[in-house]
Amino acid sequence: MKAPFYRFVAILLLVIPGITATYGFLAMKDAVFAQFNTDIGHVLWAKFTLGLILFLIGVAFIGGWTFFRDRKRNYVAPRFKAKRSKKIN
Question: 78 exposed, middle or buried (CB, 10 Å; 0-12, 13-18, 19+)?
Fold first, then answer.
């Protein structure tokens, strides 16, 4: 009974940053295309900056999650593998 719940929580941990990144991308797009509107006529820098921050947070979280999962399963290149400390006897 615990396994499906843990999988659901894991899916939520990936969906929430995905939604955040999507909203950030859409906010950046809306801010850039607002300059073509005759009522506004300029780029909405606050909305663009907020969208950029949300987009970067979402992408960084998903990328980090994937990287550390792949590192744990030994799927990464040798230069990205965890460094092991040398034992001195």
Answer: exposed
Sign of the torsion angle spanned by Cα atoms 22, 24, 30, 35:
negative
CA separation for the pair 85, 2 (Å, rounded): 36
How far apart, in Å, are the Cα atoms of 79 and each of 6, 60, 74, 82? Answer: 31, 20, 12, 8
Tell me the pTM.
0.79
Q: What angle do CA 70, 76, 78 make, to 5 degrees?
A: 145
Rounded-to-integer distance, Cα 25 and Cα 53, Å? 10
pLDDT of residue 89: 61
Q: Domain residue spans in the chain? A: 3-80
